[in-house]
Amino acid sequence: MAVDPSGGDLRDFLTEDPQAPVVMLNLLRFADGGRNSYASYAAELRETFLPRYGGEVIYAGAGGRALVAEDGQAWDAVLLVRYPSRQAFCAMVADPAYQQVTRLRTVALQEAVLQPTVPWSPG
Domains plus CATH for the chain? Predict the structure, then answer.
């Protein structure tokens, strides 16, 4: 299973208003022993890369027992990360220093969903 976006994924992501803010939903399933590696990645993300690119973690939490889900659909962790734009997210992902750190995330995860979200318009 893929846990990182591909170049094609990022190109498609930018076709939807690259300058508009976006909140990225992260659903994470850890590989055996992956929590420590992910914690190291998350610390670097919060301390270095999110401030550099204007991002902000607005929620991070452990996944509990799912109330409504099929077997295997529960997640170990959930994060919501706000970025000032899709372009800012892509610039972060392209940063060579980030690419070095993101290896910690890649080895930590067995499965992941990165779902961009935008607010519903009123009414």
Answer: 18-64+75-117 (3.30.70.100)
pTM, full prediction: 0.89
CA dist., res. 37 & res. 35, Å (int): 6
> CA-to-CA distance for 90 and 92, rounded, in angstroms?
5
Q: For residues 21 and 19, what is the distance between their CA atoms, to the nearest angstrom?
A: 7
Task: Indicate the average pLDDT of the chain.
Answer: 92
Q: Show the tokens assigned to 43.
A: 């610390």
∠ at Cα 30 (68, 108), nearest 5°? 155
Q: How many residues does the chain have?
A: 123
Q: With a cut of 80, say whether residue 100 has pLDDT above it.
A: yes
